[in-house]
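STAS domain-containing protein, Urochloa decumbens. Tokens?
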Amino acid sequence: MVVNNKVDSLSYDVEAPPNQGSSAGAAAAAAAAAAAAAAPPPAPAPAVSHHHHSVLELHKVSLPERRSTGKALRQRLAEVFFPDDPLHQFKNQSSARRLVLALQYFFPIFQWGSAYSPRLLRSDLVAGLTIASLAIPQGISYAKLANLPPIIGLYSSFVPPLIYSLLGSSRDLAVGPVSIASLVMGSMLREAVSPDDQPILYLQLAFTATFFAGVFQASLGFLRLGFIVDFLSKATLTGFMGGAAIIVSLQQLKGLLGIVHFTSHMGFVDVMRSVFKRHDEWEWQTIVMGTAFLAILLLTRQISARNPKLFWISAGAPLTSVIISTILSFIWKSHSISVIGILPRGVNPPSANMLTFSGSYVALTIKTGIMTGILSLTEGIAVGRTFASINNYQVDGNKEMMAIGIMNMAGSCASCYVTTGSFSRSAVNYSAGCKTAVSNIVMASAVLITLLFLMPLFHYTPNVILSAIIITAVIGLIDVRGAAKLWKVDKLDFLACMSAFLGVLLVSVQMGLAIAVGISLFKILLQVTRPNMVVKGLVPGTQSYRSVVQYREAVRVPGFLIVGVESAIYFANSMYLVERVMRYLRDEEERALKSSQSSIRCVVLDMSAVAAIDTSGLDALSELKKVLDKRHIELVLANPVGSVAERMFNSAVGETFGSDRLFFSVAEAVAAGACKPQP
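Tokens:
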């Protein structure tokens, strides 16, 4: 193709879409005005209807600047692992300034701490005390959900928030135990070890799994592999979280009904069978107390949801319920209402000596650590980004992974289990007016005071109130509106959502998570192996070619098949591309035969949406060209992006097509093709 080559184009009749009837002439005139194609001057095209002349200038497809292999590799790796260019701030800085910037990068507290003021402290103090009132009862409750001693939940609400306040970049994230990670850890470890028969071994496995979760999380952040967490799509997470929330709630029937001998299985059928099989163990005093406090907690949640300014009502309701139920339990001293019992007083004891990296349970702890690590990372980063977007600041996902990972590794050595950013506590933290991560320090200080001086007060706290708190906390994870939206927008996403939901509900939490990951990967593979391809036509009055399905006014150009490829071309989809083009060609030839139009003599592939191509894709294009050449049909490519054009010219495919088969745009490809004499 020659630069500045100009083509005099005559307008011609084009095929109107089925529903346009008498507007075909107008569409043809609009196409002519756009000068999309031309008939050769010596011999007019078969269907010339006007003699309006226009000049279409042909442009050469340019190649990007040549790069050495090393430079190209460095740029590609930088795009994959450092899309945010974290080292940009260090450019053109003195050594002293770089040291300060490095400290601020790895320890964000140095960045906002220098500008901290008493006004910010007042806001953080109120927010910290508010979330402490929620964190203390939730910490005790979630520890029991993980089949751990209640005191472990308080330990996990003390050390991790302090570490996160030093390393975390979110101002609003409130750190502590969360329900889903607690449930997954409890269910996975309990399958191998009974927390009742072997409590010490179970505790060792929990701490070791927490350590592996931290290693996994910190490694993802350090190696800049945070995109791996994105394999859990929002649709599958919606289903998984909803199913897990129902399972968690059903598990609390043990506490709400006062059942002593309860199933260790997590499936819906097993839980309900156990509930009715043990009906003789139901205690009416426990049922009355549990139902009453559950109703109060749900009511306060509803009040705060309708009026966000009253957030303090739902935030303080759990601790208030614990205090009132403890007083009632102390007064009644009924043996039918089980209580927490004695909790040890004091700060976190070291637990590094309890970590075990050998024996038959190592594989179990690694698997549990990775599962809980993925879930806690997904929740923590999603919550952090949500509130960061509300307050108009950025959260570095990889730095957050490192912060959460280091927090869990250190926590495993201080009698803590898996922690992350909790949505419920973070929402309360934001509503209470927190300004910085100091609110986490205030919360940890309140927990410390509780550990040192207030533990005897929890002796008579009923277990039933912990069950009511858990149900109230997890019920918000059931997103019915979100599932309905998925059904309306994307049926495949809805199918993925329901598959994960039913997998958790009817089989197990682990199976539900496996289904969620599997469906997410399947959806990615489906999109990669079956890319979207469309037949394009000319939009009247423009030089733009668009999908004839999306733009019903778009008209096909006689003798041309214009196909848009809307995906990268890889080994996984290259043969599909060939098959799909040949199917389009068959359909268009049948259409042309029925309407007595000229047969297809040129196939134009619009490559503008093809972001990348590999050697298999190049071979597929070459193979498609050979097949079409045998049928005397020309194959041309329009608007290849820089990286695609570079690979083509660096391979034999570039020579196969030649510069006369690569065009700047679809319009120029059609115009040049129309000027060639028909065979």
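The first helix runs from residue 24 to 34.
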